[in-house]
Design goal:
heterodimer; A: mainly alpha; Four Helix Bundle (Hemerythrin (Met), subunit A); 8 helices; elongated; B: about 100 residues; alpha+beta; GMP Synthetase, Chain A, domain 3; three-stranded mixed sheet
Chain lengths: ~160, ~100
């Protein structure tokens, strides 16, 4: 069964935006602001990728009116925790790479968004982080539909309290 | 594990995984991450002339490093920080504007 690309244009557009920002000319402080936004946007793409694929797998992208609660239910920390879990690794070995890239970009995004003003990111460093995000998105979109569904269930499944 | 022990593993594993990318050296710093969890921050220094490294290569390097550290009993997450010596300091006048 052929893998289905990530539904909706947002993820691809976030990567494209990050690439444009990373290449921005201008004054040094403006460029640093662009680098920060590029890193933040690259991480956003990686986060929105599972939001889109999981909600598509569980509900169906065409059902836009009822998709939102599932799309919005995913949270940054729990998604990473599930991607790094043994259950996720058992679904497909590519998920472990996604998890490492996701975790690494999440930390960089935190610095980009919240660290005090400082020269955090250089251009090649930023472009390499964007490439990391692109890889995580590509790996996610390469999963076959049954594996996407298995993975989509992990963040929302809860064990019954004893 | 001590930072030196982690650095020894990182230098070996990243040297193999990033072969062909002009990888130069790894430097390890142990400190909490943004969530306050114990973590390892590994600066991956590239040689002059190194360009953007593809995500496929870095992704595999991260997994290889994670496995090697786990096998040695280390469970802190290894965050990679990329350092390119050719990049002008982020706040400097950058004559190589986007083309």
């Amino acid at each position: 069964m052929k893998p289905r690309r990530i539904p909706g244009p947002l993820v691809a557009d976030l990567i494209a935006t990050a690439e444009l920002l990373a290449a921005s000319p201008g004054q040094p402080t403006f460029r640093q602001a662009c680098m920060r936004r590029a890193v933040s946007g690259a991480y956003d793409a990686v986060f929105h990728a599972p939001c889109a694929t999981f909600s598509d797998a569980l509900v169906g992208w065409s059902k836009a009116s009822i998709l939102a609660p599932i799309y919005r239910s995913l949270d940054h920390g729990p998604v990473l925790k599930k991607l790094r879990s043994r259950e996720a690794r058992q679904i497909d070995e590519r998920i472990e790479r996604v998890a490492f890239l996701f975790g690494s970009l999440q930390e960089q995004r935190h610095a980009a968004d919240y660290a005090p003003p400082s020269p955090l990111f250089s251009r090649t460093q930023t472009l390499t982080l964007v490439a990391d995000a692109q890889e995580a998105v590509s790996l996610s979109s390469g999963l076959e539909a049954p594996k996407r569904l298995q993975l989509a269930i992990l963040p929302i499944a809860r064990q019954r309290a004893a | 594990m001590t930072e030196f022990e982690v650095q020894t593993i990182a230098q070996r594993v990243l040297g193999a995984s990033l072969h062909g990318t002009s990888f130069d050296a790894a430097h390890v710093e142990a400190r909490p991450n943004s969530a306050g969890e114990d973590a390892l921050f590994i600066t991956v220094r590239f040689k002059p002339g190194a360009g953007v490294t593809g995500g496929g290569v870095t992704g595999e390097a991260m997994v290889a490093l994670g496995h090697a550290l786990e096998a040695a009993g280390e469970h802190r997450f290894p965050y990679l920080i990329y350092a390119f010596p050719d990049d002008p300091p982020p706040y400097s006048d950058d004559v190589q504007a986007a083309e």
